[in-house]
Amino acid sequence: MEDKGYTFIKHEKPFRYEEDGLTVTRGTAWSGPGCHIGCGVLLYTDQDGRFVKAEGDPENPFNQGRLCVRCLAVEEAVNHEDRLKYPMRRAKEDRGKDKFERITWDEAFEYIVEKFNGYKEEFGPESVTFWQGTGRDVPTWITRLTWSFGSPNWVYAVSGSSCYIPRVAACFATTGAFWLGDYSQVLPGRYDDPQWELPETIVVWGNNPIISNADGMFGHWVTDCMKRGSKLITVDPRRTWIANKSAHFLQLRPGTDAALAMAMLDTIITEDIYDHDFVDRWCYGFEELAARVSEYPAERAAEITGIPAEKIRCAARALANSKNAIMQWGLAIDMTKEALPATHAISALFEITGNVEKPGAMIVPTSIQYSAGGWGREFLSEEVAQKRIGLQKYPLLQSGFQLVSPDELFKTIDTGDPYPIKAAWLQQTNFIACPSPDLHHTLKVARKLDFIVAIDLFMTPTIMALADVVLPCSSFVERDGIRIGDGAQRGEVINKVTQIGECKSDMEVNLELGRRLNPEAWPWADVQEMYTELLQNTGCSFEELQEVGPAYPPFEYHRHEKGLLRPDGQPGFNTPTGRIELWSIFYDQCGLDPLPYFEEPVPGPVSTPDLFEEYPLILTTGARRWSYFHSEHRQVKHLRAMHPNPTVEVHTLDCKKYGVHDGDWVWVENQRGRCKCQVKENNISKPGLCSTDHGWWYPEAPAEEADGLFGLFDTAVNQLFPWEPGRSGFGTNYKSSICKIYLVKEGE
Ligand SMILES: Nc1nc2c(c(=O)[nH]1)N[C@H]1C(S)=C(S)[C@@H](COP(=O)(O)OP(=O)(O)OC[C@H]3O[C@@H](n4cnc5c(=O)[nH]c(N)nc54)[C@H](O)[C@@H]3O)O[C@H]1N2
Ligand SMILES: Nc1nc2c(c(=O)[nH]1)N[C@H]1C(S)=C(S)[C@@H](COP(=O)(O)OP(=O)(O)OC[C@H]3O[C@@H](n4cnc5c(=O)[nH]c(N)nc54)[C@H](O)[C@@H]3O)O[C@H]1N2
Ligand SMILES: [Mo]
User: d(Cα 585, Cα 596) in Å, to the nearest integer?
Assistant: First the structure.
């Protein structure tokens, strides 16, 4: 081990030991089944090598022994009889039919290599595309696979890339970094570390951290802080548990977040309670911002958002007058069409109040990963890189973002313009059932692909409808792995404790396939050797980290003052002006409005009043559930029991108005399509708002496409949404639409 200033954990026991006739292995729970964070776990196996249970590891500073319900039930998912256990192949004309045949791994790899190389030769490497879903643990490996094959087309098939990416894009464009709330997670001593200070205020904005634990953030850090005295401001159309515990609850109409943020900015500026010193020294464009937000006094925002003006002002004052504050924001900000200006406005709230790079405020964690944002870009030629789909239409994609514009990709697959797309590699995504809108159109277009390979833990509607080759993937207890970066920066390991069927991990598969496609890019003998290369910043090999992880990089506050946020070592932020750009030079150069703005969601009561007469309820979708990660876990009995069917939350007054009752099956419909849900009568929203689940399908329903594709055609809420991103190419309205509800007739 080499000393690189990292802090390690002193464990009492080795990483593997015996206890009461079981073997206990310490490690991390990271995906699959799906999860964003990677909690410290103790994994128990019996004498036959069978995985028995997972428990939280009290020695791990990240989760301190706590686990969510999906990890407590992970044994059921791992040992489930429906797991894919060996590679399979199906003739292209049998897509949609349950006609897969078992093949060997070698046959699978050889077939894929032959196909991919064939397209490369005839149509160029850009004709082969590589798809992932939400960032489980695949970006590092899939980018290397994509780029070392020579393709620029790395795909995440959600319209407007509207998960996390809009927030990251907006923060990078305007501040040169991405910001996280400081819950002490970067310090191994956590809440007891003397450097850390408790946030006085936590603003929970379009996020439900207790349930979603999103993007590297462990939700119970919020309750840990609440217990120590932090006050909350919550911005959500639904009265969540956290909203009920908040000093200020701003119950807004979905999709109006930017208007609310601008009114709060206006209050803070006109009442002169912003941080003058920070704004003078570190912000650019304050006067212009002040002029723009003066168009949104609280009274105007009250009309738009439905929140009384005085409530908006009080919340703005509480934030501005706090010694330090965290912006705990979430997906709802990305899932609005003009997500970029919304993010710009919301970030300005913590920026002009000086909640930057100080304890208990917003921080930029030290990066462990030299591969952040993708690994192996050097294998992609600049000439081919310019062919990335969407780059011409959306200049913002130039700014270090390596993904395609998914909206443009579907047009390209459909039309062959500007070039043919022939193949797709699907890794960790169930795209027709979960991220992609416009199900029938999407399916029709995707079917034009000549060759589709998927790797997954389970059979899914996407695989049944589209895949020509299926590869069985390991869960996290069946593989060695590492977790570096993403959210709370720390380096740690995932340890293999069992084997199911012939499953291989994503990393083994990418290494083995990558080596066959471009040996130079994959020189390692095995995954452990590959991990050691990636861990080089920690000074540990994979095997060393098994014993001493997690590894924490050195961290300090106020880095903008010390020249630690810019590559040239100058003080300030990594933007053209060296300041936080409230007026963005980069947006201006991309032909976008350099200041935040608000645009009404479409469709909606204001933007499309005629449609709203026919579909008189506001619709939001996808609020996270404890027991499911997106479209996963529906086969896991004890998790399914917690939430057996897709639901639509309807207010009591609307239940009366539309003649429906709790437990009734209804159609939720708008001008684009409909889906079937069970009514959950409650009053957590205002009357006039419905909220549905997302990602539903029924693993127990008939599988073949002709028989409904696991019930998907009835149940997919994304039939109600189009491929339609915001002006920048980022953001879309999955969480702010309109609908009507009516009872499902017998036999339907
Ligand atoms: N209406 C609406 N739609 C939404 C949302 C919403 O709020 N509302 N949310 C959106 C968001 S934010 C996102 S990120 C997308 C998510 O979209 P996706 O990430 O595509 O999510 P899933 O549909 O769960 O697909 C994940 C698939 O990967 C498999 N899998 C899990 N772990 C592993 C693994 O380790 N290896 C491999 N190879 N496979 C694995 C699972 O079995 C599953 O089939 O959905 C979006 N869709
Ligand atoms: N259990 C579980 N955890 C997950 C996931 C999962 O599927 N299941 N998915 C993971 C993924 S990929 C993501 S992106 C994250 C997302 O996790 P979060 O960021 O927490 O997002 P959601 O739960 O979709 O929505 C959060 C809140 O936004 C509110 N909301 C809806 N519309 C609006 C709006 O227009 N404005 C505002 N301000 N609020 C609104 C909802 O009522 C909800 O309470 O969760 C991750 N974690
Ligand atoms: Mo997401």
Answer: 13
